[in-house]
UniProtKB/TrEMBL annotation:
<keyword id="KW-0472">Membrane</keyword>
<keyword id="KW-1133">Transmembrane helix</keyword>
<feature type="transmembrane region" description="Helical">
    <location>
        <begin position="21"/>
        <end position="38"/>
    </location>
</feature>
<feature type="transmembrane region" description="Helical">
    <location>
        <begin position="254"/>
        <end position="275"/>
    </location>
</feature>
<protein>
    <submittedName>
        <fullName>DUF4153 domain-containing protein</fullName>
    </submittedName>
</protein>
<feature type="transmembrane region" description="Helical">
    <location>
        <begin position="358"/>
        <end position="377"/>
    </location>
</feature>
<feature type="transmembrane region" description="Helical">
    <location>
        <begin position="223"/>
        <end position="242"/>
    </location>
</feature>
<feature type="transmembrane region" description="Helical">
    <location>
        <begin position="191"/>
        <end position="211"/>
    </location>
</feature>
<feature type="transmembrane region" description="Helical">
    <location>
        <begin position="50"/>
        <end position="71"/>
    </location>
</feature>
<feature type="transmembrane region" description="Helical">
    <location>
        <begin position="323"/>
        <end position="346"/>
    </location>
</feature>
<feature type="transmembrane region" description="Helical">
    <location>
        <begin position="110"/>
        <end position="131"/>
    </location>
</feature>
<feature type="transmembrane region" description="Helical">
    <location>
        <begin position="152"/>
        <end position="171"/>
    </location>
</feature>
<feature type="transmembrane region" description="Helical">
    <location>
        <begin position="78"/>
        <end position="98"/>
    </location>
</feature>
<feature type="transmembrane region" description="Helical">
    <location>
        <begin position="287"/>
        <end position="311"/>
    </location>
</feature>
<keyword id="KW-0812">Transmembrane</keyword>
Length: 600
């Protein structure tokens, strides 16, 4: 009998299943009610914003971390451990909140919230290992297991919450068919929904912890590591093609930086997955192991290009919080890449070295994220100084100046920068800048401000478009009156295309007048071709009738019944007169062996 009881006893420091489930459900319910209570007081003038920010940060952090730790360690120990961390993060967030005129504005900034989330995400596994065994704090295998279990528990618990609410809604709908609304009435108050969600989440976390021995990351890791050779091939082809394509063209595209960041992050993740928690669980087949090594060796090249892509964008437009975040991530990836490459080139024990690199990098991420929340790394001050300096030195035009973020998103530093710009405008008698500063301060949202600026500058933009836009056939004209009814978005799109240049240095746009649609006179319709930011040729059919509306259609090839893909050289061909008009049911523009006709 004694042995039988011991088989069913809870592990040391753990509670029996039912008791632990009830406690976890209670903790989750209390957390949900606390968050509901704070949300209900959002914007309450009787609660100082600084106090509300501190309370919200503390409650959210303490709830998340305490629930995550409870189970792997005893509940009381988890509550104490989470308390210290929640106080620490609350202090950091409160310091960061001082950058704003109203401290709770921090909660509306995705960059700042993301940094706080990164601190929680990276610190929690360290905290769990420390509570379990302080001597194992920097052991990769223990951190790997902790991170996996925390992620799996929360993911499965939230799936359970989603399933609970799905069943609740279906049950309510079913009972409403027979005029029974008891479920809807019970769930209608917000505090019930929050409290019940928290309780179900806590219950889910408790049950998943009981089933921890049946959970394993290895099937997923085994599948994902099979992607290493594919990523290696893609990265190799990309790096070989870069010299042929040229850096100027590569980084001229708006999406290059984001794409490179994503690719480098995927490569780093796959290398870590291939190495698993220890050598015994790492890739064993020669092909996969060799592919992992080669990918690690190539990482410095890929990540260096990632850093250069961000630098190129900063040179063009200056620093912003998003670009500082992108540069920070890019530098981390470059450090990963160089360290991984060095670990492989040193040969023996390279997998163990990479695991230790991962531990060191995790600590570095936590440190930098902490600095991000302090005045040491105030991204709003850095961004404001960059934008103001670039405008004062003529490197940024008025259209490129980040006035809305300065006035409404970059806190105290942004408002100080806007005041400095106003002083500059007053000194130089810049009426246009003064008008924009007044408008940005009075506007209630960004769209309203941008519309005011665009409509105020519409005559100037139309005049610039008329100056840049080549008109064909020879002798055809386009007057300013015709452009008055063109929507701002279309005029800006065409003007942006004209500001790009073709390979031979001419404007990246052209307008061809012609009777493409028989019901409209040839002088009141045209096809306009222009370059977009990716150097691709776009084309539209437009009807230009002063005081009688504006119509813009897509263009297709009636011969192939498809929307055409045109090379950039098409614009130069039309500017040189290498086209004609042909009938195709409607008239079509013939250029480069393709027919272009308005869609019906």
């Amino acid at each position: 009998m004694k042995n039988k009881r011991s088989d069913h006893a809870a592990p040391m420091g753990q509670m029996p299943g039912t008791e632990h489930r009830l406690i976890m459900a209670g903790l989750g319910g209390i957390a949900g009610l606390a968050l509901w209570g704070l949300g209900d007081r959002w914007g309450d003038p009787s609660v100082p914003p600084a106090l509300f920010l501190a309370l919200f940060t503390f409650v959210a952090t303490y709830s998340i971390v305490a629930l995550a730790l409870s189970g792997p360690v005893a509940v009381a120990r988890a509550l104490i451990g989470a308390l210290g961390f929640a106080v620490f993060l609350t202090l950091l967030v409160s310091i960061a909140g001082m950058r704003y005129m109203v401290t709770t504005d921090l909660l509306d900034e995705p960059v700042m919230v993301s940094v706080a989330a990164v601190i929680v995400l990276f610190c929690t596994p360290f905290l769990l290992v420390w509570l379990q065994d302080r001597s194992a704090l920097l052991r990769y295998d223990r951190l790997f297991d902790a991170a996996w279990m925390l992620t799996a528990r929360y993911a499965l618990a939230w799936v359970f919450v989603a399933a609970f609410w799905l069943i609740a809604f279906l049950s309510d709908a079913l009972l409403e068919l027979v005029d029974i609304e008891v479920i809807d009435s019970f769930l209608r108050p917000g505090w019930v929904r929050f409290g019940l969600s928290g309780a179900v989440l806590g219950l889910g976390l408790a049950v998943v912890q009981e089933l921890r021995h049946t959970l394993s990351p290895y099937p997923l890791l085994r599948l994902l590591r099979l992607l290493v050779p594919l990523v290696l091939v893609v990265v190799s082809v990309f790096l070989l093609a870069v010299p042929l394509r040229g850096l100027d063209r590569l980084f001229g595209e708006f999406s290059a930086g984001g794409t490179l960041l994503g690719a480098a992050a995927v490569a780093v993740s796959l290398i870590s997955m291939a190495l698993d928690r220890d050598d015994r669980m790492a890739v064993q087949t020669r092909g996969l192991r060799s592919a992992t090594q080669v990918l690690a060796v190539l990482m410095p090249l890929l990540t260096a290009l990632t850093v250069w892509a961000v630098i190129t964008r900063v040179r063009q437009y200056g620093w912003t919080p998003d670009r500082i975040m992108a540069m920070t991530v890019a530098l981390f990836l470059l450090t990963y890449g160089m360290a991984y490459c060095g670990a492989v080139l040193l040969r023996g024990g390279w997998m163990s070295r990479i695991r230790q690199i991962n531990v060191a990098m995790a600590v570095l991420v936590i440190a930098v994220a902490g600095l991000w929340m302090t005045p040491v790394l105030d991204v709003y001050r850095i961004s404001t100084a960059s934008q103001v300096s670039r405008f004062e030195t003529g490197r940024t035009t008025m259209d490129q100046l980040a006035l809305w973020p300065l006035a409404h998103e970059w806190g105290r530093a942004g408002k100080s920068g806007l005041a400095a710009l106003q002083s500059t405008a007053d000194t130089s008698d810049s009426t246009g800048l003064i008008q924009r500063i007044v408008a940005v301060r009075e506007a209630t949202n960004r769209y309203q401000f941008e519309q005011q600026v665009q409509h105020r500058d519409l005559p100037e933009r139309a005049a610039e478009l008329l100056e840049l836009l080549p008109i064909r056939p020879a002798g055809a004209v386009l007057d300013a009156e015709t452009l008055q009814d063109i929507p701002v978005f279309a005029l800006n799109m065409w003007l942006n295309g004209c500001r790009h240049v073709t390979a031979d240095g001419r404007p990246g746009c052209v307008l061809v007048k012609g009777a493409f649609v028989p019901s409209v006179s040839a002088d009141e319709q045209a096809m306009i071709l222009f370059l977009d930011d990716d150097a691709d040729t776009r084309i539209s059919h437009v009807v230009l009738r002063p005081d009688d509306g504006f119509v813009m259609r897509d263009v297709f090839d009636p011969a192939t019944r498809a929307w055409p893909s045109l090379p950039a050289a098409t614009i130069s061909e039309i500017q040189d007169g290498a086209f004609d008009l042909r009938p195709s049911g409607v008239n079509a523009l013939s250029v480069g062996g393709k027919l272009l006709a308005p869609s019906q």
